[in-house]
Structure formats: C-alpha cells, structure tokens
Design goal:
This protein has 272 residues and is of the alpha+beta class. The chain has two domains: 94 residues, no CATH class; 127 residues, Nucleoside Triphosphate Pyrophosphohydrolase. The chain has four helices and 15 strands. The chain has a six-stranded mixed β-sheet with strand order 1-4-5-2-3-6. Strands 10, 11, 12, 13, 14 and 15 form a six-stranded mixed β-sheet that branches. The longest helix is centred in the middle third of the chain and has 19 residues. The radius of gyration is 21 Å and the shape is globular.
C-alpha cells in the first residue's frame, strides 16, 4: 500500500503544531477571533485573556483562539466561515482555524458540569474542564468518522470509483462515502456498514490511507480504500441524492483540494 497523507511528504516540524500550553520558546503571538462559526486572524487581542485559549504554534508563532462575545465583531465584517477559508488560506492556517473554532465552542459549552450543574474550572496544563463538586472531567469532543473511496475492477485506466452526491451539498458535488463510527464498532466495520446503508453495495479489502481533522463540527476523518464485492447502487434518499461509477476521464464535480476526499480521489487518479 502506498503512503498517503494530507501533506505528503510530511514536513517536520509541521507548519501547525497543536499544543495545550505555550512553550518557553513561544514569544510571538497571533490570534484567531472566533465569531460564531467564522474566524479572523489578527495580531492583537483587545477582549482579554478570559476569552483566549492557546491552541498551538503556526509557523513558529504562538496561536490563541479568542471566543468573541455575541454581538461583537473585532474583524469589522472580514471574518470568513471555515468552508470559504478552506479555498483561500494555506492548509495549515485552515487546520489551525478549525481547531480554534472547536476549542472555543467546547470551552463555551462546558462552563457548567453536565452531571451536577456546578461551574467548572480549567485543569492546569491540560485541555480539560473539571467540576470542583463531583470531580467530573470534560474533554474536547472528537467524533471519529470514516471516509472511503470504493473502487471497482482491476487496477488500471478502466478501473472505476464510486462517488456520491450527498443531500448536504447544495450544489452537484460528488464525493467519497462517509459516516460516523458507532459505539462498539471497528473502523473497518463502519466502512462496510456505511457503504451498504448509503448505496446498497457490499465492499471488502478495506485498507487505511490517512486521516484529517475536520471541524464540521468536531470530526476526525479516517480515510480508507475499499473494493466493490457485490451489489448494484441503491441510494438511501435521506442521505444520497445520486451516486455512480466513474472513470478517471469522466469524473463529476469533486470536493476542493483541502479535503481528504479530494486527496483520496487524486491519489487514485495518479496511480496510472
């Protein structure tokens, strides 16, 4: 199996390095203003440290997420939603922005204990909130989701891939099949189940390719390849508008390059 990752070959250190606390070598600061679900990078933070959360180092500069209170907009309308940012910003900046949104939203929604209702306190040197009364710990939520490119036929120019237009896409965009992993389920099992549920096709030879943080809203996309085994396409209309088998020379509109779906497709295209 060939090696594949969102940034290949990998760079060390990576352009964005997530972290909980700034190291002694972090002297330069930058801020990501989180305004609802939109973001704006800034050199200053006028909202106070109580709204700021250190999220990591981007190109050697310490980065803080700033949860902007409702009704305020320090960007003066310049903030962008994450989808728009994904096609305008470098990938590392987009990943950092996604982390900023997730950390700010988590801190905002975990100010009180989910068990007893007491006000929580941040745990020093750890990304967690602790209830001082019942000691319940709350960590940022990460939801594992599989995404898979299904192939049909022998490797070569005539091989086909299964792409689908999901109901969540307002425009005709065709992508890999994806879905959340259920409790007690393996990743490979989720691939087989989701493909069968969404398009009625049985797959096998499930192999891992790569992963990508995906902040919509708090997913970790885990990428796979799988081979068609049996069955004709029968779409679940609650999830899939249309699906089909496509060759390299007749692909439909596919997702933008920042997404793991597009990269799984591009990797397959490059195999011949």
């Amino acid at each position: 199996m060939s090696s594949f990752s969102p940034s290949f070959p990998p760079t060390f250190p990576p352009p964005f390095l997530p972290a909980v606390v700034p190291g002694a070598d972090v002297t330069a600061h930058r801020y990501v203003h989180v305004i609802g679900a939109s973001v704006h990078f800034a050199e200053e933070n006028d909202l106070g440290d109580e709204h700021a959360h250190f999220i990591g180092v981007l190109d050697g500069v310490g980065l803080w997420a700033v949860d902007v209170p409702a009704g305020q907009d320090p960007s003066d309308g310049a903030a962008l939603d994450l989808f728009t940012l994904s096609v305008r910003a470098p990938e590392a900046e987009w990943v950092a922005a996604g982390r900023a949104v997730q950390i700010a939203e988590w801190a905002r929604t975990h100010r009180f204990c989910g068990r007893c209702g007491s006000r929580t306190e941040p745990v020093p040197n750890e990304r967690a909130m602790r209830c001082p009364e019942c000691r319940l710990l709350a960590f940022p939520r990460v939801a594992p989701a599989m995404i898979t490119l299904v192939t049909k036929g022998d490797p070569g120019p005539d091989q086909q891939v299964l792409l689908a237009h999901g109901v969540q896409f307002p425009m005709p965009m065709y992508s890999c099949l994806a879905g959340f992993v259920e409790p007690g389920e393996t990743l490979e099992g989720a691939v087989v189940r989701e493909v069968m549920e969404e398009v009625g096709v049985l797959v096998g030879n499930v192999t891992y390719r790569s992963s990508q943080p995906w902040p919509f809203p708090h997913s970790l996309m885990i990428g796979f390849r799988a081979d068609w085994q049996a069955g004709d396409i029968l779409c679940d209309p609650t999830e899939i508008v249309d699906a089909g088998w496509y060759t390299r020379d007749a692909l439909p509109n596919t997702p933008p390059g920042v997404s793991i779906a597009r990269r799984l497709i591009d990797e397959w295209i490059a195999e011949v």
